[in-house]
């Protein structure tokens, strides 16, 4: 089943996107900072969410990992 139609898979993809964008921005800030608008601005926004809400994102990662490993 596609990640679009399965809610848990969609949340996993969004969470991985936020974590990946925040990690890429920590390594190479200029890569994401030059695209703040448009379609590529989504990645910059995900990086900002990952930076500002990092304790919440980390808790969500732990909960998602637990649910994938033990509840599926």
Automatic annotation (TrEMBL):
One of its GO terms (cellular component) is Golgi membrane. Residues 1-26 form the signal peptide. It is found in: Golgi apparatus membrane. It is a single-pass type I membrane protein. Keywords: Golgi apparatus, Membrane, Signal, Transmembrane, Transmembrane helix. The keyword Cell inner membrane does not apply. It holds the Pfam family DUF1242. It comes from the Eukaryota. The chain crosses the membrane at residues 54-71. Involved in the early part of the secretory pathway. Belongs to the KISH family. This is Protein kish.
């Amino acid at each position: 089943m596609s990640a679009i139609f399965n809610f848990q898979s969609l949340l996993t993809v969004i969470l991985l996107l936020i974590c990946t964008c925040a990690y890429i921005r920590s390594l190479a800030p200029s890569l994401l900072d030059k695209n703040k608008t448009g379609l590529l601005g989504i990645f910059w926004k995900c990086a900002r969410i990952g930076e500002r809400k990092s304790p919440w994102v980390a808790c969500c990662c732990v909960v998602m990992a637990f649910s994938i490993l033990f509840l599926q």
